[in-house]
Design brief:
- With 267 residues, the protein is of the alpha+beta class.
- β7 and β8 form a beta hairpin.
- α1 crosses α2.
- The chain is globular.
Amino acid sequence: GDVQSDLSLRMATMAPSFFGNDARMQAGMPSMPLHHAQGGPGDVQSRVEQPREQRFSPYANNGGTCLAVAGDDFCIVAADSRLSQGYSIMSRTTSKISQLTDQCCIASSGCNSDQVTLHKLLKFRIKMYRHQHEKMMSAPAVGQMLATTLYGRRFFPYYTFNVVGGLDEKGEGCVFSYDAIGCFERLKYTASGTGQALIEPFLDNLVAYKNTDNKPTVSRSAEETLELVKDIFASAGERDIYTGDFVDIYVIKKDGTTYEQFALKKD
């Protein structure tokens, strides 16, 4: 009897993968975990039985940079045309700007699909406003409408960072800056997108003349501001891989809006 029990103990200890938990239990030993009894942690069945977590994100940041600068009687809205996904360039000619009225434009960076949807919705609401009130919506009214539209989607927001520029009722340039859920303010200039951190210091120094004593006594003209915008985007394109290819520029004045395209680096 002692020889037989000793033999059972040796067999259960030395070859558990052949005799399994039944032999160990007969020998008075605790059973082994399933993955040890079936060939180790690399066994196919043990991998299948492990819980797996699935994730899905409805958002993607497709890069790009937007900018708006307001003058005494004009406003310039500009954005690059590169559409990126990770380190890949998906398109070089995708505009981020939509002209909403004769004196108001919007530029959006972030998720391209949300941008297209948002711009389409704003154009629809502006058209309804025109039919109901028989007049065109002003730029400040467009700015307020965009804020309420974004806030209405705050629980599943449009992943866009928007800039609105145009002329107010007095004919003065106005710029509105937003976050993703509709908080906004009226400014003289603003920027958004992947190149924002590169562009804002330029604007602080060359438009607002912060931290300098050399403030000019005469405001910039629309032509001078246009050249400044081109220089700023050329500098941002050197440092930001998501900014490049072309810059779409809208110059808004009381007698109409003009469009210009400026070429940037393609790499």
